[in-house]
Design brief:
- The structure is a single chain.
- By secondary structure, the chain is of the alpha+beta class.
- It is built from 10 helices and 18 strands.
- The chain has helices at residues 31-40, 82-90, 104-113, 190-200, 248-256, 271-280, 290-294, 296-300, 307-313, 357-370, and strands spanning 3-4, 20-27, 45-50, 59-66, 69-76, 93-101, 118-127, 130-138, 144-149, 162-163, 175-184, 204-209, 221-227, 234-240, 260-268, 316-320, 323-329, 340-347.
- The longest helix is centred in the last third of the chain and has 14 residues, at 357-370.
- Bound molecules: fe (ii) ion.
- The site of fe (ii) ion (FE2) has 6 residues, from strand 11 and strand 15.
Length: 374
Amino acid sequence: MATMVEHASETQTDFLPLNGTDHVEFYVGNARQAAYFYRAAFGMRLVAYAGPETGQRDRASYVLQQGKVRFVLTTALRCDSEIARHVEKHGDGVRAIALWVDDAAESWRQTTKRGARSVQEPMQCSDEHGPVVIASIAAYGDTLHTFVERKSYSGPFLPGYKAMTDDTVARPVGLMYIDHIVGNVGWHAMDEWVDFYSHVMGFSLYQHFDDNDISTEYSALMSKVMANSTGYIKFPINEPAEGRRKSQIEEYLEFYNGPGVQHLALATHDILTTVAKLQEQGVSFLSVPHSYYTDLQARVGKIDEPLDELEKLGILVDRDDEGYMLQIFTRPVEDRPTLFFEIIQRKGSRSFGKGNFKALFEAIEREQASRGNL
Ligand code: FE2
């Protein structure tokens, strides 16, 4: 059963106060071309750049933004590089989920003292716009959490980046902020990472799902959603569960070569417009069978959006005690069946779409079968 879990007592002091997600950095094979895809298809705007022209000798990074969603696409310029090794092992994927904090050194101290592995000790860097402090710890697989303190910084992104203006390629679609970021971990590793988020990061369990909620004839997974004290940062953690055939999580782990970020959910206030634009701009979504919509009204009750428009776009709906939510999933955004995106609009509901899992998994499995991986 899916279970909602109440927040930890608010009288407890939060040893890791987080203001929000600062950015998500992807290591990719060709950042210039990946940036074009996220600008033209997802409507992100190019706002900053760092590379050889700005004094970066080993990498090029493109900073893209839409609403509060900020992506950094980084590529290696030479083969002897941790970026190149990451791309060789994983393909394009998320390297760092960066969290915006008021005190990066203290965030690093609090988490490393509770057992986090340090990847980057607190480091101050500055330019004419002021100082920034960053520090990083290891999360699942080769994924990092980077703490970014920028309260005295007024530049376009981080020191060393130059501002880019007038992006004529970007076609915004109304994306507002990151709702949640999901990690896939290996067999029986979910609780280890739930413990990490709980003990090292001070998060608490927000919801969990077991394989009775999330299983089809072939595929199963277990999921626990961890959230920080404000509920702004939500990290569901998935592990595979025993099914008759290879699960989608196993397929991910095989092609990503280990644990990593499975999907990012991006929030909009108008999913009908956002998804119609994304489709026009070439983003490819999982399709949903007609049968899903024939019993939708009975399952979710009255909603504001016309059912025929939802069906035309393939948008899913789920309801809980607090309201409802609308969601849709892209196909993987690269050739490996690894990273994909979710577009989500919440209308009161805190759900992650439990009522949609079965319909959704059946759609994912049709695609897995078409790749010969089921
Ligand atoms: Fe999700």
